[in-house]
Structures are given as structure tokens and as C-alpha cells.
Amino acid sequence: MPDARDNAMQGRCTCGAIHYRLLDRPLFVHACHCRWCQRETGSAFVMNALIEAECVEVTGTPDVIDTPTNSGKGQKISRCPDCKVALFSVYSGAGPKFRFVRVGTLDDPDACPPDIHIYTESKQPWVVIPDGVPAMLQYYDRDAYWPAESLARRALVLAKV
Length: 161
Fold this sequence. Notes:
By secondary structure, this protein is of the alpha+beta class. The chain has a single domain (4-159), classed as glutathione-dependent formaldehyde- activating enzyme (gfa) (Alpha-Beta Complex), CATH 3.90.1590.10. The protein contains three helices and ten strands; from the N terminus they run βββαβββββββαα. It has helices spanning 35-41, 142-145, 148-159; strands at 9-12, 19-22, 28-32, 46-52, 56-59, 63-67, 75-79, 86-91, 98-102, 116-118. Strands 6-7-8-9-4-3-10 form a seven-stranded mixed beta sheet. Strand 7 and strand 8 (86-91) form a beta hairpin.
């Protein structure tokens, strides 16, 4: 029987010192247009694929940088110690059981289009959100937008002691 890891999504930093593999599909993918994400990425928005921490297999040791957030709770960004590329974050609100993987660091970022656009009240006016993709002025109700399978996976992780 083939190993499920054979078909896993993979990613890396620019210099290749840190590699990672996602052992399952992301729970949900956010395109965040908030000013904090714009500043931190130097771009119009950030693409984060939310996934269980136990489903992210990392080769190498990233530097973990505490970074402030608009909520005041902060985030821990894992960066390559050599090229400094941000690979994933742990947000205080979601906790250490989840990772927000930077979609642009995947070998095939096309595999993770956004499921939702958030904080569009501050999106750049020239960004056009495709028809059929939910767009929220701020955040959203997870139960209203996440697929049932993703909600169930999240609940399993949160139930673990």
C-alpha cells in the first residue's frame, strides 16, 4: 500500500536550508488583506494555509521570531535562519496546535487558492477578488464557511490533551 506522504504537498525557503511537507490538505486557506499583513509581507495580501501542526513535517531548524499583531496577542513566525524567508506562523489565537503556512513557499502554490478573503476593508483598490470566493470586511464565522471535514479535523486536534 502506498504511503500517503508520497503525495504530500511540499515547500521550502528560497535557499533550501528548510524544507517542509504537509501530510494532509490544509483545513482552510486565507487571503488576508489587513494592513499588518501588507506591512509584514511587503505585498497586497498574504496567503496562509491553515493546517494542524502535527501535519507539518519540517526538515531543518527554522528561527522562531515573536512578532506583534494588531490583536496584541502576537504571532511566532518561523523563518529560515539563512535566507530569512517566512515559512509559517503560529498565531496566539489559534495556538501552537495549528500552523499558518505561507502558500507562496509551497513548491506548487497553485494547489492552495484562497477559500476566503479577509479584512478586505483595507485591501488595495486594484486587487480584484474573483466571483464565488467569499470576501469579508474583517474576520468571519468559521462554522459558516469551513467545510464539515475541516471543522471535524480541528475539533479532533482541540480535543487532544
